[in-house]
Amino acid sequence: MGYSAYTVGDHVTSHTAYGVGAYTYFRDNDVTVESGIKAPKYAGVQFHNSLNVFLDGKGQCTHVINQTGNTAKNGQTPNYVCEYNGQSFAEE
After folding, report:
1. Which has the closest alpha carbon to 70: 81, 58, 84, 83?
2. Alpha helix locations (H) across 1-92?
3. Do the strands 15-18 and 45-57 form a parallel or antiparallel pair, or are they unpaired?
4. pTM for this predicted structure
5. DSSP assignment, residue 77?
6. Partners of residue 91 on adjacent β-strands
7. pLDDT tens-digit profile of 40-85?
8. Domain residue ranges in the chain
């Protein structure tokens, strides 16, 4: 499954989070992380106003939540996923 800043266990079917952020700073190595937030794809798993941000260094975070949201890398602005419920999402 790989590393992430925030992970919800695969067995969880109901979870709600507000304002979760994943911040990328890989000072010494060029690291690519698939997703800052990982969660099972159930309608009861919900995220509100989540984001990923590239602070400095090398590498990138490819998505905000699972395969949803844009890449955080050098020169990019923060990326937001406003609403995510495991089945649908809205990006800003």
Report:
1. 81
2. none
3. parallel
4. 0.89
5. P
6. 81
7. 999 999 999 999 999 999 999 999 999 999 999 998 889 999 999 9
8. 6-91
